[in-house]
Amino acid sequence: MRAVAVRLLYLILLRVLGWITLLARSEASKDAEILVLRHQLLVLRRQVRAPKPSWADRAIICALARRIPTPDGCSCA
Which of 74, 58, 75 is nearest to 66 (CA)? Predict the structure, then answer.
């Protein structure tokens, strides 16, 4: 039980110190960090390509799509 209390106190202290450092930072440094994070996000988005399903994946998707009821009730095959 004591270890949990110490850990909780440690985490609270870390959070408070993080808030204090955020308050002490200038707007320019905050803007610079936002720009860096946006750039990292753009780089990661460029690295992720759309998945290319195999013929088996396409067959399963097609079979499942035929099971979806249409709004007017007719089955289009």
Answer: 75
Tokens encoding 37: 């994070």
The dihedral through the CA atoms of 32, 36, 38, 42 has a sign that is: positive
**Average pLDDT rounded to a whole number, residues 48-63:** 86
Contact yes or no for 76/70 (Cβ under 8 A): yes
Q: pTM score > 0.85 for this model?
A: no
Q: Count the neighbouring beta carbons within 10 Å of the beta carbon of residue 66.
A: 10
Q: What share of the chain is helix, strand, coil (3-state, %, to 5)?
A: 75, 0, 25
DSSP 8-state secondary structure symbol assigned to residue 71: T
